[in-house]
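Dig into what follows:

_____
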Amino acid sequence: MARRKKVYEGKAKILYEGPEPGTFVQYFKDDATAFNAQKKDVIDGKGVLNNRLSEFFMKGLAQIGVPTHFIKRINMREQLIRSVEIIPLEVIVRTYAAGTLSERLGLEEGTALPRPIVEFCLKDDALGDPLVSEEHIIAFGWASQQDLDDMIALALRVNDFLSGCMMAVGIRLVDFKIEIGRVWEGEFQRLIVADEISPDSCRLWDVETGQKLDKDVFRRDLGSLTDAYTEVARRLGVMPSNVTHATKPTLIN
């Protein structure tokens, strides 16, 4: 079999040329990074879990009419995705105070916000992905006002869907970030959800105990990241409920 051509490698994923024009193969790595890649490790099995969880969320979004780049899962670590023009912004939706929002505004972690708040960060590792305003985005041409309106609407729909999914299994969705891309259908542009949705890109807390089930486990040295992600997958039905720490996880097809 011919070796696939690598198109891009990021901190957690690799993109290869897809089998058809306008497609990529997205490979999920086991690498974990935090604090703008100042902290790094390899977490065995993380890529497998994130691949399966992202598939679960992307399929769920498609079922409620939210367009995504996801086409199908190929194997345990790879997805076939649609090629998109990524808007160079991270779109963050916060429902509870945590992380940098708590630091910036002096809010206690876990404080419920008056309403979901949408923030934008410029995707630039060298600058530390700085927070930017809508005024910056329009002035520098990263997106138009119509793009921004559509991005906010998409992000809030994703928030509604993810919040419901998580609350149904006893998990609080604190915040999350997504990336959004442009696709062209003839002369018309459409915005769709891209990249991934997984515990790498969400803050997830157990409703009863407040236990963290996301990448903060790695950031703050709170235990096993694999165990945390496995618990999220188990609760969502992505893994069988009889998995124990002594049992090697088996993902459901």
